[in-house]
Every structure is written in structure tokens, then in C-alpha cells.
């Protein structure tokens, strides 16, 4: 059955028919230098869902995220974002689609010749927003990540955790419909990691943005699944009675293949020997 | 060291040429469509043009000086030392001005572009730019091409003028030649075709410097070591291509103007 093709235009509000997954991978494979990195990957992410991607180092998690943003193209298979197939998009349409996607890179990837303000306001400047309005929005989003005091600093003057928070601010400033977090807590100490996870939970529960998140730290993954953002106290708190966030699901990769796709409860109750060993 | 088969090497060379051609084609095509990064183009013009001015002035000036000295020694044997102005002007405008300016700007800017873009590539800033909805070719490559072609044209004229001025200074103060006669022979020797030849060359050189610098920058792999390798390759390849292109343009101009 043919479905209406959603309108993806830069800057505007995304019009997407109900029921279509925000991200859909169908039998996607990719390899580099004759090494197959991902093999027949299929999964979908519904609107408002936070999908945590787990797996050992080198199993293709970052590659999967880059595929989702069309930064690299698959060798075979089909990827649809906001209900539109990436392979059928023109280059202009791809750039328009990316305006609705926020991405946090593993090493932050901040523009080192620009200040925090210019980094965060990059998209706003590209959209030719007046300087005063752009500044106002930068201050607002920097307050969200609690970094308003660092507005005039350069990335080289920031700590790893601060850079990661600026990267999150840059990704969320245009209120994207999909956020891709590539190991936002990678290489950070446990306290800073918790601060970053708090921001992710806050973004999930306040803005209900669909997101894909890669992490190596199981502790962070389960914090996301078992905690919620309390808008009254403005703090992250454990969901009562051992409850789980219904919109947080897991995808586990190993050796380029999906070994698990499901809810937190299904993951913790899985009898798969490899999964059990991985989670221990 | 890993040995590569001749077939794999040939394939990689062909693939590189194809990749370079696509990049250059896309960058030029972007000039004719929106969005245009005018502010970035002016920033590059300042960095490439104004920034290169000291080395271009000095190179042009001293080349003119050396040319006058060498020419006077040879021309003296034939009793034609009065032709020094002609030789200096023709050599500077047709050949040395465009080529030396191209090589100096290549050494300064092709390396700068390759290292800047290479560093951005290895630190995922290029990917971040794409993820933020900006085409890096449009934002980074096209302004550099426009700025280099535009500024190299004027830098070459400045270099030609400084070279002729340097030659005149040597002719007057060291060789004790007549100043007005020097400039008169220099002016009279230059024909329309000579000036066109001297001004067409920097257009090609500017294009080569910017596209090669950006190509090596955007294809950098292998961390900081890769950035160093890309920088070296950009300077070597652009310098060789400038000289090759100089030969081809000279041949073409001789075909058109007959001198």
C-alpha cells in the first residue's frame, strides 16, 4: 500500500503521517576495504522512542549512526528517515532532511576556530536568523546544558565533558525531530557521564524527541531506562516501584549483526548466552 | 613498507583523478546556485591575497633584480645592454611573474588549505558540518577557488610591476643605464598577446592551487600524520601542475598570437 510521502523542507515543521517509523533500516549492509562492518541490519524506531544501541567496540555502532544521517551510503539495503527513503533523495533534499536531525559526535566535533556561541548558533546563522534572536536562543540552550558562563570560550578552553555538552546544545538548538548521540559519555568520568545522561533524559522527557544513542557504559543505558525527568524539581529521578521508561528500547549489535531488538525488560530477561555474558 | 600491485596503483590514480574532477566540477557549479558564502569568500580573499602580498612583492622584486643583472652580462657581449628593459619586462610579464607568483602562493596557500581542511576532516568537523545541513564543498571549497583565482590575478600584476621596478633599479643604480630608456624599451616590447598570456596563466594557477589544496584536505585520512602528508602532497602536486599548465598555456598562446 502506498503511503503519502512526508514533506521534508529545511527550517519548517516536519509533516509526517502518523504510524510511519522515524528511522527504518531494511537489510542494510556496508563494508570498508573488503571487511563487512554491518550485515543485513533491520530495525525501526518509532516517534518519541529512545533507542539505545549497545555492542562491543568495533561492531559498527558509529557506522550505523552515520548511515542514519546519510553521512555514508550503504552497500545494500534501504534506509528511511521520517518515512522517506534516503536513496531516493536528491542532495538538496538530504541537506533539508539533516536540518531536522541533531547529531552529537563521539569526539564532539566542535568547530575549533569558533567560540561556543558561534558553534551553538551555527545552524541559526546558516538560516540567516537575526543576530539578537540567535544570541537569545543560544543563551537559552546553553542554560539547558548549564554552560551559559562558557558562551565566549573556544572549544580548546573547555573540558571533555563541557565540549560534549556544547555539542548537545548545538544539536538541540533547532529543536530537531531526531537526535543521534554517538557515545555522548565515551571517555568521560562517571560523574560527568551522569550529567550528560541527565541531559539526554531531560531532552527525552521534556521535548519527547526521537533519538538513537550509542553507549559503551551499560550503567548509562540502564539509567536512561529506569529514570525520568521531574519537571517540578528540575532533577532526574528513579521511576517509582522499579518501573521502566516505556519509550526506551534497546538494539544490541555484535560482529555487524543485530543480536537483540526489544524492550528493557526483554533484554534483562533474555536467555541468550552471549547477551547474558555481555550484560554481566 | 606495503607493496602495491601496479594494477591497484593505476586504479587508485584513476579513482583520485575522478574524485578530484568531481570535486572541482561541483565546486565550480556551486558558484551559479544559492546559497553563496560571500563573507567566507572575502575572508579567503584577505587571507590568500593580502596575506600573500609580502612574499609576492619580495619574490617579484628580487627576480627582476637578478634578471637585470644576468641579462646585462649576456647582452653586453653583443653590445645590446640597452635591451635589458625589454628582456626584463618580457620575462616577468610572460613567464616569471605568473609562474613564480603561482609557486609562492601554492607554497603558502595550497599547504594552508590542505592542513586546515585536513585537520577538520580528521576531527570529524567536516562530518559535523554536513550533519548540520551545510555542504562543505559549497562553504569551504567554492569560496577558496573564487578567492584564489581572483586574488592571484592581481598578485601576478603586482609581481610583474615589482619585477620590472626591481630590474629598473638595478639598471639605473648598478648598471648605470638610462631609466626612461629602460622603461621605454620595456613598454614598447610588450604586445597585447604578451599581456594576455601573462594574465591567463594565473587564472589556471589559482584554480589548481585551490582545488588541489582542498582536494588533499578533504581526502585526508590517518590523523595528524595524514594531515602532514596531505599538506606535502598538495604543495608538490600543485607546483608540478602549475608548471605543466604554464607550458600548455604558453604553447596555446604561441599558437594564437604567434609569439
List the helices and strands and how they pair.
The complex is a heterodimer of chains A (280) and B (259).
Chain A: E1 23-32, E2 35-45, E3 50-54, H1 61-68, E4 76-81, E5 84-85, H2 91-98, E6 101-104, H3 116-120, H4 122-126, H5 131-144, H6 160-172, E7 178-181, H7 190-207, E8 210-214, H8 218-226, E9 227-230, E10 235-238, E11 248-254, E12 257-263, H9 264-268, H10 273-279
Parallel strand pairs in A: 3-8, 3-11, 6-7, 7-8
Antiparallel strand pairs in A: 1-2, 1-4, 4-5, 9-10, 11-12
Helix pairs in contact in A: 5-6, 6-7
Chain B: H1 6-29, H2 38-77, H3 84-122, H4 125-131, H5 136-173, H6 179-189, H7 192-218, H8 223-257
Helix pairs in contact in B: 1-5, 2-3, 2-5, 3-5, 3-6, 3-7, 3-8, 5-6, 5-7, 7-8
Helical residues, percent of chain B: over 70%
| Proportion of residues in β-strands of chain B | under 5%
Oligomeric status: heterodimer
Determine the N-to-C terminus distance of chain B: 49 Å
What can you see in these coordinates?
The complex is a heterodimer of chains A (280) and B (259). Chain A is α/β, with parallel strands linked by helices. The relative contact order of chain A is 0.15. The longest helix of chain A has 18 residues, at 190-207. Helices cover 33% and strands 25% of the residues of chain A. Chain A has two domains: 23-100 and 176-279, 3-Layer(aba) Sandwich (Rossmann fold); 113-175, no CATH class. Chain B is mainly alpha-helical and 259 residues long. Chain B has one domain (37-257). Chain B contains eight helices and no strands. The longest helix of chain B has 40 residues, at 38-77. The N and C termini of chain B lie far apart (49 Å). At the A-B interface, helix 2 and helix 4 of A face helix 4 of B.
Amino acid at each position: 500500500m502506498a503511503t503519502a510521502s512526508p514533506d521534508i523542507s529545511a527550517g519548517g515543521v516536519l509533516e509526517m503521517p502518523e504510524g510511519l517509523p522515524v528511522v527504518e533500516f531494511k537489510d542494510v549492509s556496508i563494508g570498508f576495504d573488503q571487511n563487512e562492518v554491518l550485515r543485513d541490519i533491520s530495525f525501526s524506531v518509532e516517534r518519541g522512542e529512545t533507542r539505545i544501541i549497545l555492542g562491543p567496540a568495533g561492531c559498527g555502532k558509529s557506522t550505523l549512526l552515520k548511515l542514519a544521517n546519510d553521512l555514508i551510503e550503504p552497500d545494500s539495503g534501504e534506509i528511511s528517515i521520517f518515512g522517506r527513503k534516503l536513496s531516493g533523495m536528491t542532495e538538496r533534499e538530504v541537506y533539508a532532511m539533516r536540518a531536522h536531525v541533531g547529531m552529537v559526535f563521539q569526539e564532539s566535533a566542535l568547530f575549533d576556530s569558533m567560540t561556543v556561541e558561534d558553534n551553538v548558533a551555527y545552524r541559526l546563522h546558516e538560516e540567516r536568523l537575526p543576530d539578537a534572536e540567535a544570541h537569545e536562543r543560544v543563551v537559552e540552550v546553553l542554560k539547558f546544558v548549564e554552560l551559559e558562563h562558557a558562551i565566549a570560550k573556544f572549544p580548546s578552553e573547555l573540558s571533555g565533558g563541557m565540549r560534549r555538552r556544547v555539542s548537545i546544545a548545538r544539536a538541540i538548538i533547532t529543536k530537531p525531530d531526531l537526535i543521534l548521540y554517538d557515545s555522548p559519555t565515551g571517555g568521560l568520568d562517571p560523574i560527568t557521564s551522569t550529567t550528560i545522561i541527565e541531559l539526554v533524559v531531560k531532552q527525552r522527557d521534556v521535548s519527547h524527541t526521537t533519538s538513537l544513542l550509542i553507549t559503551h557504559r551499560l550503567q548509562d543505558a540502564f539509567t536512561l531506562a529506569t529514570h525520568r525527568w521531574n519537571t517540578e524539581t528540575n532533577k532526574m529521578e528513579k521511576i517509582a516501584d522499579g518501573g521502566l521508561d516505556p519509550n526506551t528500547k534497546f538494539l544490541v549489535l555484535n560482529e555487524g549483526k543485530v543480536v537483540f531488538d526489544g524492550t528493557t525488560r526483554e533484554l534483562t530477561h533474555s536467555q541468550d548466552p552471549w547477551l547474558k555474558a555481555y550484560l554481566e | 613498507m606495503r607493496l602495491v600491485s601496479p594494477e591497484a596503483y593505476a586504479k587508485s590514480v584513476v579513482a583520485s583523478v575522478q574524485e578530484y574532477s568531481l570535486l572541482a566540477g561541483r565546486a565550480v557549479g556551486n558558484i551559479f546556485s544559492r546559497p553563496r558564502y560571500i563573507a567566507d569568500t572575502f575572508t579567503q580573499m584577505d587571507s590568500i591575497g593580502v596575506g600573500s602580498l609580502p612574499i609576492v612583492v619580495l619574490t617579484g622584486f628580487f627576480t627582476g633584480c637578478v634578471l637585470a643583472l644576468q641579462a646585462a652580462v649576456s647582452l653586453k657581449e653583443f653590445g645590446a645592454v640597452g635591451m635589458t628593459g625589454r628582456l626584463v619586462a618580457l620575462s616577468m610579464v610572460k613567464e616569471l611573474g605568473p609562474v613564480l607568483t603561482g609557486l609562492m602562493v601554492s607554497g603558502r596557500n595550497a599547504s594552508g588549505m590542505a592542513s586546515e581542511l585536513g585537520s577538520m576532516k580528521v576531527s570529524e568537523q567536516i562530518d559535523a558540518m554536513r550533519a548540520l545541513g551545510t555542504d562543505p564543498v559549497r562553504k569551504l571549497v567554492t569560496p577558496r577557488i573564487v578567492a584564489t583565482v581572483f586574488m592571484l590575478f592581481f598578485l601576478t600584476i603586482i609581481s610583474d610591476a615589482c619585477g620590472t621596478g626591481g630590474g629598473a633599479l638595478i639598471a639605473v643604480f648598478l648598471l648605470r643605464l638610462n631609466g626612461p630608456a629602460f622603461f621605454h624599451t620595456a613598454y614598447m616590447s610588450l604586445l597585447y598577446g604578451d599581456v594576455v598570456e601573462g594574465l591567463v596563466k594565473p587564472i589556471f594557477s589559482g584554480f589548481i592551487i585551490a582545488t588541489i589544496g582542498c582536494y588533499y584536505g578533504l581526502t585526508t585520512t590517518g590523523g595528524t600524520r595524514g594531515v602532514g602528508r596531505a599538506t606535502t602532497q598538495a604543495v608538490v602536486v600543485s607546483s608540478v601542475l602549475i608548471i605543466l599548465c604554464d607550458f600548455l598555456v604558453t604553447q596555446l598562446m604561441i599558437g594564437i598570437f604567434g609569439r
